[in-house]
Structure formats: structure tokens, C-alpha cells
Specification:
This protein is an alpha/beta fold. It folds into 2 domains: 4-211, DHBP synthase, CATH 3.90.870; 238-338, Threonylcarbamoyl-AMP synthase, C-terminal domain (Rossmann fold), CATH 3.40.50.11030. Helix content is 32%, strand content 17%. An 11-stranded mixed β-sheet has the order 1-8-2-3-7-4-6-5-9-10-11, with helices on both faces. A 4-stranded parallel β-sheet has the order 12-15-13-14, sandwiched between helices. Strand 10 (190-193), helix 8 and strand 11 (210-211) form a beta-alpha-beta unit. Helix 11 (289-304) packs parallel to helix 12 (321-332). The longest helix has 16 residues, at 289-304. It is globular. It starts with a strand and ends in a 13-residue tail after the last helix. Bound molecules: threonylcarbamoyladenylate and magnesium ion. Threonylcarbamoyladenylate (TXA) is lined by residues 28, 30-31, 33, 57-60, 91, 93, 95, 111, 113-115, 117, 119, 137-139, 176-177, 179, 192-193, 224, 226-227.
Length: 345
Amino acid sequence: METKKFTATEIDQASALIRQGELIAFPTETVYGLGANALDEQAVKQVYAVKGRPSDNPLIVHVSDFEMVKQYVTEFPEHTKKLVDTFWPGPLTLIFKVKPDTFSTTVTGGLKTVAFRMPNNKATLDLIEIANIPLVGPSANTSGKPSPTTPQHVYHDLQGKIAGILEDGPTQIGVESTVLDLTAADGVPVILRPGAITKQQLEQVVGKVRVDQHLVSEKEAPKAPGMKYKHYSPDVPVWIIDGDQQVFEKAINWAKIKNKRIGLFADEQVVSMFSNEVDEVFSFGEHSVEEATRLLFAGLRSLDEKNIDVIFAQAFPETGLGIAYMNRLKKAANQNILKINSIFE
Ligand code: TXA
Ligand code: MG
């Protein structure tokens, strides 16, 4: 299959293909999504097939406005309007109880709820509106690879397997949306996946917000089936470096003694300090969690393609956006927070 490139002027063609049951990758402000008609079970199954992932994971349904959601949900919880008015379009996914017999279990993962999101990308909002159907959109990567934040990442993983890619340059945020469950019995919204919309931002709008425990306790069984997969992992092992210059020094010295070739993902200051000591570097520029998050997946992908044995990646404090950044980085590091002393044993 030839994978066609579409630009913002060719959205009609891309929409037509979606309506025919084809898969089209689309840009969002978070990561590129793999789009298919959410009401077409065969198309949704195909999404899993091309990603190479089992289909027991509920998917986010992407809409072009809140009106679209109303067809699939009977009753909205009290905070819905405020959340939608404040954060849509944007990186906030909302989970509602869904009308029976609307979406197939391939979309819902067999749950009685469905996740909806209105992405903040003009081309994709046009794509959905013209197709006039909601789209599933898991990240447009091969299962196990970091999520794609550029059209090139999507080509790398899915060329020849999907009908097309709607291109719109690199994404702005770099990690997937915050997932907020509005269906808890006590009415308190629950964060199931941290993203760029932080707990604090949500609390300013709706008052109390809970964080699902599995996000803090890694041993606990996952609530959403999707949580059990090892996501975002490059093939090269990743170690999180949580500390100052000395910690980087120790880690680099240890790797050298072990004859390991080193890749470094860090800010410009750290990268310039150690560029002569390591084999490959990826700098995310100034020391900012926004920049680190925006370039995390691109950095991991880039280093993963180099001839190295280990990636050392810089930690950020787990507050605000740092929670989402560290959540993805820990997954890339296979859930191991590096206790820096442990590697010298
Ligand atoms: O930023 C994003 O959200 C990206 C872009 C492309 O929009 N999309 C994305 O979609 O990450 P997806 O379908 O891969 O997200 C699925 C995750 C599941 O792993 C699960 O955590 C949560 O969303 N989810 C979806 N439906 C759910 C439900 N009914 N109950 C609980 N969690 C659900
Ligand atoms: Mg994904």
C-alpha cells in the first residue's frame, strides 16, 4: 500500500479515505494519532493490526466539537461544561458513560465508558468535521516504540501500512493528553493518565481531583487495560539520571568502565559539559520541562537509532508538567527509577 502525504489543502481526500474505512494518521498538539472511523469496527481492528498490538485496550474517540459527543452520551456529569469550556480544544481527554450499542468493544475495550477528546489542531479538526464521524486515534507508532511527534516518526513506523498521513510539522506538547475519568461514583474526577493539563489546573476549575493510585504505586494492577503494556520504550536501555553534575559524572564513569557506549538526553548545559565523555547526545535546549517533554520521544527515537548501549536521560521534579514527563520517562526506563547508587554495585 502506498502511504500518501496530505497537506492542509488536501483534507477532503483524507476525509474521504477515512469514510471508506482507511487509516489516516493525523497531527495533534500532543502526538500524532492513527485515525480511523470509530463507528467502523473493521477499521478500528485494522488500527490494532498495523500497530502490532492486541486489541483489549480502550481507545480515545476524537471529535471536532462537543456537539459530536452528545450523540453518544445520555447524561453528562456536573463538571463537564466547565471542563469543556476551559480545556477544549486541548490535551484533556474526558471519560463518560456511553450509550449502549454505539461503539464496538474494539473501541471501549468492553467497558461501559468511552474517552473523548477534541484535539487542538486545525487540520485535524477540519478532517473530523468534513468526514463527519468521530475518529479513534491511538498514537501512530508501532507498539513498543515511543509515540510519534513528527510526520517522519509516523513514516518510519507505518509507511506502506496505512493509506496516508495528514502532515502538520512537529507537535507542540510531546506527550499524550491527560485522561480524566468523570464516572466515579462519588463524582470526584480521577486522573488516569497525567498529561499537559495538570492536576492543579483541573482543581482550579472543578475543585477536588483524585489521581488514580496505579500512577503512584507501580505494583498495583492497572485500571485501564492499556496501562499494562510497556509503552514508549526504545530498544536501548534507559537510565534516569536524577541529580546534579556529579550524578551524571558517576553514571558516565560507571558506563565507561563497563565498556558501554553512552547516549545522553539532557539540557544544553549538561550536554556541553559531557559531550566529550559520551558517544551520542540529544540536547533539548534550555533547562525547561516544557522543552524536555516536547522533545522526549524524538530524543529517545533518535538515540535509539545510534550505535549505543545505554541512554542516560535527565530527570525533572515531579510537579506540574514534570509529572507527565517523568511518567513517560519511567515507562521508557521500564518502570525503574534509577537509584543512582545501585548501578555501582
Ligand atoms: O494525546 C492523546 O491522547 C493521543 C493523541 C493522538 O490524541 N491519543 C492517545 O490515544 O493517546 P489512545 O487511544 O492511545 O489512548 C488510550 C488510553 C488508554 O490506554 C487508556 O489509558 C485511556 O486512554 N482510556 C481510553 N478509554 C478509556 C476508558 N473508557 N476508561 C479508562 N481509560 C480509558
Ligand atoms: Mg501510544
